[in-house]
Amino acid sequence: MSKGKEANSYLDMDLLRFTTAGSVDDGKSTLIGRMLYDSKSIFEDQMEAIEKASEKKGDERVNLALLTDGLRAEREQGITIDVAYRYFATPKRKFIIADTPGHIQYTRNMITGASTANLAIILVDARHGILEQTARHSFIASMLGIPHIIYCINKMDLVDYSEEVYENLKEELEHFSSKLTTKDIRFIPISALFGDNVVNRSKKMDWYEGGTLLYTLENVHIASDHNHIDCRFPVQNVIRPQSAEYPDYRGFAGRIAGGVFRKGDEIMALPSGFTSKIKAIDTMDGELEEAFAPMSVTIRLEDEIDISRGDMIVRVNNKPDVTQDIEAMVCWLSNTPLNPNGKYAVKHTSNDVRCMIKEINYKLDINTLHRNLDDRSVNMNDIARIKIRTTKPLFVDKYSRNRNTGSFVLIDEATNNTVAACMVI
Amino acid sequence: MSNYNLSHLKELEAEAMFVIREVVAQFENPVLLFSGGKDSIVCFHLARKAFFPAKVPFPLMHVDTGHNFPETIAFRDRLMKETNTKLIVASVQDSIDQGRVVEEKGLLASRNKLQTTTLLDGIENNKFDCAMGGARRDEEKARAKERFFSHRDDFGQWDPKNQRPELWNIFNGKKNMGEHFRVFPISNWTEMDIWQYILQEKIDIPEIYFSHTRPCFVRDGIIMGKTDFVPTKETEEVRDMVVRFRTIGDATCTGAVASTASTLEEIIEEVASTRVTERGGRSDDKRSEAAMEDRKKEGYF
User: Fold this and answer.
1) Does B221 touch chain A if contact means CB atoms closer than 8 Å?
2) In this structure, are A27 and A143 located in the same domain?
3) Taking CB atoms and an 8 Å cutoff, what residues of chain A touch B193?
4) A190-194, B107-111, B145-149 — which is least confidently predicted?
5) Which domain holds residue A271?
6) CATH code at A254?
7) Residue B131 dihedral angles phi and psi, to the nearest 5°
8) pLDDT of res. B232
9) Mutate which: A79, A94, A229, A282, vs B, most B CBs within 10 A
10) Which of A135, B24, B121, B142 counts the most CB atoms within 10 A of its CB?
């Protein structure tokens, strides 16, 4: 093989974003360290640095968990307090890991990490089985619409690599996860500490016939994770060069949030309701015949209709809900509790509006899924169902249908902080 | 079954273009920090793609330590001319002359830390409310937790424990007067992604990224290019070596690697088999385990 060919083979990879959840002792950082180490994504100077640090702390063996603990406060406390992003690649795929802490007080971080993930790895300690947090992590993954979940039954080394322990746990998890909306759920017995079934097949668990964790991550089918049915194009900017070369050019720049747009398609602009046809889909590399989510393109129309940022281009016969009254599941992210009579700024796709809270329907106990109708105070890390009314109509889909047009955030107008993550029901 | 699948480079490109377009929509006076290094060249390329066929609707700013490799500056000036782009140069030398900062002394003297003051002054003097840059999360541990939209207080400081949550692709650029944002469109790219993208897009980069012969010396195991700004000890022997640079920073603290890779394909192969991180050749990060975190809190890029 020529050198050029080898370099080009990297150009065919695709991208998988996954999140890892687990409690402090589940060995999550060890697992990530193990994946990076065994897939040869750790460099010599990084390895030297953690060898030195492990020695200083008096650890028995090189502590792979140290690789992922980024901030000084975390290194001191030995816990992960924020979402950290890690990267590695195999010849098949590039991976982005959103490494999130598992404690209940960090639910908001888990939700942040889960919001962009295609897949969730949930660690279960083989000795302890399904704990409260397993249920919580599973529910969050399912609520955030992550299409694939892998349960890694970890610490198999501490249960003598027993098939029986694994099968019992698997059965329990299957029963429990039948309540989730996630369709693709898998199970893998591993030992993150010793590397069994992480990158390399375990020699101690020949009874397990499935793929290793890395093999599974490389082969999960992710092409259908985006919505390619409902055409949604939130307009970000209007491109008007006003140059000698392009005197009358007027294009709408944005990232396709759903569906496939083709040249010649009949479209409707929201909120105006004006219709036109797609004249061209432009990129710097030339015109495209079609474009799909999540591509960033510029669309030109046959007719001069008034469209600006915040508007949405859709197909005439497939429109989102155009509404000022929205019901949503909300995860509260701020120290300051939700003000039941409050007004907040809303960011939804490229739209900025304001809203008032109309109702808090109930608060959800994310460990038991119990709906709490008595206590409706919504504090940091709480999940609740609410109703809001916005100052202008938004163009929304159900979150379960489209994660781009079904999600929005609330912003405290006094502090400008992002205070809530919301999913349209 | 749909076949609508993007390659990882196309997906990263779409994400970065989206982020740059958000910056132009949400801020009044943004700027792209441009060092002449490969990451900022890629950012500029993405900006051009985001607004094609219009011109890039913001200026570029180079925080110039004065300690450059001449090839970088020649490349920078040529690119600006070819693309008809406005470049602002914020000079560390000016900050020194104005008494805003004091130059480090001695053999290991570097202007890297001084850049922070020059950068913040450049942002303030030009009233920029958002500075985009080509930092990547894979470069260093403290950067792994950086947001795409990173809020800075009126002192330009970063508070890692008080970052705004960033969910889905929704970016909150709301701020008070006097505050500004740092935005990192290529947060999710790795060194390998950058090289592959440069190959895919046929992007022009300064020749010092490719293997060449230049006078060098070795200090603490790191190969340094000999320039007028770097004094050498008597024991440090300067000789011609075949090297290339993996990053282009201040010449006083950017190390070279011995390499014969003279094409993008060969560089990619080298990156794929290399065993030391890109920043491993940067002495500024080695000062302490939390060196980067400390500099970032002060307002460093």
Assistant:
1) no
2) yes
3) 94
4) B107-111
5) 232-315
6) 2.40.30.10
7) -115, 115
8) 79
9) A94
10) B142
Domain boundary among the residues A292, A315, A338 is at A315
The answer on pLDDT for B193 being more than 70 is yes
Is CATH 3.40.50.620 the classification given to domain B8-193+290-298?
Answer: yes
Q: What pLDDT was estimated at residue A76?
A: 53
Q: Given an 8 Å threshold on Cβ–Cβ distance, is A243 in contact with B53?
A: yes
Render pLDDT for A131-179 as a digit per residue (tens, 0 to 9): 888 888 899 999 999 999 999 999 999 999 999 999 999 999 999 888 8
Write out pLDDT tens, residues A235-252: 999 999 999 999 999 999
A102 inside domain: yes
| A311 part of a folded domain | yes
Q: Does A326 share its domain with A382?
A: yes
Predicted pLDDT of residue A247: 93
Element (H, E) at A32: helix A28-38
Interface contact A71-B6, CB threshold 8 A:
no
Residue A368 lies in a domain: yes
Of A166, A195, A225, the position where a domain reaches its end is A225
What would the 3-class secondary structure string for chain B be? CCCCCCCHHHHHHHHHHHHHHHHHHHCCCEEEECCCCHHHHHHHHHHHHHHCCCCCCCCEEEEECCCCCHHHHHHHHHHHHHHCCCEEEEEHHHHHHCCCCCCCCCCCCCCCCCHHHHHHHHHHHCCCCEEECCCCCCCCHHHHHCCCEEEECCCCCCCHHHCCCCCCCCCCCCCCCCCEEEECCCCCCCHHHHHHHHHHHCCCCCHHHCCEEEEEEEECCEEEECCCCCCCCCCCCCEEEEEEECCCCCCCCEEEEECCCCCHHHHHHHHHHCCCCHHHHEHHHHHCCCHHHHHHHHCCC
Q: A269-281 pLDDT, tens per residue?
A: 999 999 999 999 9
Q: Are residues A311 and A373 in the same domain?
A: no
Interface contact B298, partner A, CB < 8 A: no
Mean pLDDT of B76-96: 90
Provide mean pLDDT across the span B215-228: 84
Residue A72: its chain B contacts at CB < 8 A? Answer: 290, 293
Contact between B55 and A243 using a beta-carbon 8 Å cutoff: yes
Q: Which of A227, A10, A42, A6 is nearest to B8 (CA)?
A: A10
Q: B149-152 and B180-183 as β-strands: parallel, antiparallel, unpaired?
A: antiparallel
Whether residue A411 and residue B199 make contact (CB cut-off 8 A), yes or no, is: no
Average pLDDT, rounded, for chain B? 85
Is A282 within 8 Å of B51 when comparing Cβ atoms? no
Choosing among A8, A87, A116, which should be mutated to test the B contact, i.e. which has the most B CBs within 10 A? A87
Say yes or no: A267 and A188 in one domain: no
> How confident is the model at residue A85, as a pLDDT?
87
- Is pLDDT above 60 for B207? yes
Q: Which residues of B touch A69 (CB under 8 A)?
A: 141
**Residues of chain A whose pLDDT is less than 70?**
1-11, 22-25, 43-45, 59-62, 64-81, 102-105
Nearest CA in chain B to A7: B265
In this predicted complex, what is the ipTM?
0.91
pLDDT at B35 over 80: yes
> Do both A154 and A138 map to the same domain?
yes
From the CA of B301, how many Å to the nearest CA of chain A? 16
Instruction: Verify that A400 and A336 share a domain, yes or no.
Output: yes
- Name which of B170, B246, B289 to mutate to probe chain A: the one with the most chain A Cβ atoms within 10 A of its Cβ: B170
One domain for residues A280 and A304: yes
CATH code of A95's domain: 3.40.50.300
Task: Determine the distance in angstroms separating the CA of B99 from the nearest CA of chain A, rounded to an integer.
Answer: 33
Q: In chain B, what are the domain boundaries?
A: 8-193+290-298, 206-286
